[in-house]
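Q: What does the assembled structure look like for these inputs?
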Amino acid sequence: MSQAAVFDQLVVGEVVAERELLLTRDSLVRYAGASGDFNPIHYRDDFAQSVGLPGVLAHGMLTMGVAGSVATEWLGAAGWVQDFQSRFTRPVPVDAQAGAAITVTATVGALDSEARTARIDLKVVFDGSTVLGKAQLVAAFA
Amino acid sequence: MVNPDIQGRVYPETAPYLVGREKVREFARAVQSESPLHFDPAAARAAGFSDVIAPPTFAVTVQESTLAQLLADDEAGVDFSRVVHGDQRFSYSRPIVAGDELTATLTITAVKQLRGHSMVTASSEIVDESGAHVVTAISTLVVRGEDAA
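A:
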C-alpha cells in the first residue's frame, strides 16, 4: 500500500499510485446497473458488432471511474476531488472470458502551494496503448 | 447532422435526485474503489463530511437525466445510435454526499461541425436543495455523420 497523501511531501513527476485492474463482463454489467447506462454495446456482442464494433466495449466512464478510484484511494481523507476530466481516445474491448487487464498510473502533474491543490495525471494503458487522453484530477488538500 | 441552432439552449431544471447511501456504495464498488469514505459513514464524518461521499464520476448518474432531455429534443436532431462520448469533465464546489437532493440544468454551450461529424458540448450545472452549486458536469458528444468515415 502507498503511504497516505501529504501535500507538503508531494513532488512533481512522482508516481503516487499504480494498480493493475481487470475489467470483466461482470464489471460492465455492475457498472451499467450502478450508473444507469444500459447501452447494449456494453453487454451484447451481437449488438456491438451490428454497429461496426469488434465486440463489447467498456464504458468510457467506467474506465475513467476506475482510474479515479486509484487516485482517490491514494488521497484518502487528506483531500477531495475538485476537478476530474478525461478524453476518451481509444475503446477498451472486453473479452468474454479473459476480460481486459488495464494498468493505471497516477503521477503528480502540478502543484499549487497557495491553493494547496495537486494535479494528478492518470495514465491508463490497455494492450500496450493509452486509452484515455488528458486524464487529470485536481485534489484539494485541507 | 445536429441542429446548430441549439447552441445556447437551456433546458428546464430536472426533477430532484436524492443521493442514497447504498447507491453511493454500489457505484463505488462498480468503479472498484475501496476508499472507506464511500462506504463507512463514520470514516466520512471523521473526514468532515455528513455522510459517505460519492466517487468523483458519480455525478454522471445525475447528469444522465439532462442528456436524456437533449436526446428527446426533436429539434436538436441527435441520433443516439451515432453518439460517441468524446470527453467528460466534472468541476466540483464540494463532494456529493449521501442525503443530497440534487437538481440539474442543462445548457448546450457549443455545437461544432468537424469533418462531417457534429460535436455537441453539453454542460449540466448541478445544485443542492438550497440552490448552492455542487458540480458542473460537461460532456462533449460526438455525433458521427452519415457520410463521414
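The beta strands of chain A are 15-23, 79-88, 100-112, 117-126, 129-130, 132-141.
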